[in-house]
Amino acid sequence: MKDNRISIDCRRRIPVNNRVPIEDHLGRPLKDLRISVIDKCNLRCTYCMPKEIFGNDYAFLPEEELLSFNEIVQLAEAFAQLGVEKIRITGGEPLLRKDLDKLISRLYEIPGIADIALTTNAILLPKRAHKLKEAGLQRVNISLDAIEDEVFKQINGRAVGTLPVLKGIEAAKAAGLQVKINMVAKKGMNESQIIPMAKYFKDKDIILRYIEFMDVGNHNGWDLDNVVSKKQIVSKINEELPLESATENYYGEVASRFRYKDGGGEVGVISSVTDSFCSTCTRIRLSADGKLYTCLFASQGFDIKEKIRNGLEGEQLTDELASLWGRRKDRYSDERMEQKNTNRKKIEMSYIGG
């Protein structure tokens, strides 16, 4: 059976001068930095950027409001001093950011950064995959919510068929990138695709991960009744393609892993609605306009861009970031499960990349 664990470049776990791993108020270490490089996207998926809200006249960020590559690298270097080992590039659609390979190349050179990944809809990957791999990108998470054209066209709001995404997947594999597929599962949207997606990617050396429809942002019409739970997803697949549980790859992994009993690979389920992984969350998110968010479901961010542009740097910058993480108490998924008041305004997923 092939080992589908995430490949971390252990050679890059090199010492960082004065590295001081830190923990938040609840004892959770800081390990992962997610960087949104742009707020624009070329699709309008109903659960993320519905076209009724993000129309043709929607005002996206002007270029001068985006963090520059120099500013992103400056922050990544400071976070590496505090224990960050993994970086994920997100959007919007990150491949819409010009010269993204140049940013990845610079991030790859930061001591202590052992893994760089990219979340994308894959449409632009055929032209970019080899360059990104050469720059130091190791993995891509590709969003694909249906394998049948008509269902996918309805979801993405641009009537784009699956072929451009499938070509992007093949380009990523050809470039030597590890590939995972993310499918958001929502009742009334794509329940019918759970089994077809599993059958399509089984035996292809590609891990398919189902994601419970989450209440991120304020415009996706989230309702608990629309959630297809992990239990339901696993049960549906197991009826036709028998599964068995697999152990987690690493501390803080958000997906529950399941192997096909016949050795045909594995699937995962990210279940932040019916389960909670707050207790092991090690992630901080940096928005395209330079705000830091300590939770996917946060209401407000910390404006680090303003401080950098006013001269904050070096040890003072690192201290500021350490203080922010040290104050962190977020546990939204726990609170949702405890039926506490979570009916608050939240940052849009398209703004911080999920």
From TrEMBL:
Alphabetized UniProt keyword annotations: 4Fe-4S, GTP-binding, Iron, Iron-sulfur, Lyase, Metal-binding, Molybdenum cofactor biosynthesis, Nucleotide-binding, S-adenosyl-L-methionine
Family, similarity comment: Belongs to the radical SAM superfamily. MoaA family.
PANTHER family, sorted: MOLYBDENUM COFACTOR BIOSYNTHESIS PROTEIN 1, MOLYBDOPTERIN COFACTOR SYNTHESIS PROTEIN A
UniProt entry tagged with the keyword Lyase: yes
Subunit structure: Monomer and homodimer.
Alphabetized SMART domains for the sequence: Elp3
Protein's recorded name: GTP 3',8-cyclase
Radical SAM core domain boundaries: 25-244
Top class in the EC scheme: lyase
PROSITE patterns named in the record: MOAA_NIFB_PQQE, RADICAL_SAM
Family matches, as InterPro entries: Aldolase_TIM (IPR013785), Elp3/MiaA/NifB-like_rSAM (IPR006638), MoaA (IPR013483), MoaA-like (IPR040064), MoaA_NifB_PqqE_Fe-S-bd_CS (IPR000385), MoaA_twitch (IPR010505), MoCo_biosynth_MoaA/MoaC (IPR050105), rSAM (IPR007197)
EC number: 4.1.99.22
Amino acids binding GTP: 34, 88, 119, 180, 283-285
Binding site for [4Fe-4S] cluster 2: 278, 281, 295
Its biological purpose: Catalyzes the cyclization of GTP to (8S)-3',8-cyclo-7,8-dihydroguanosine 5'-triphosphate.
Species of provenance: Virgibacillus halodenitrificans
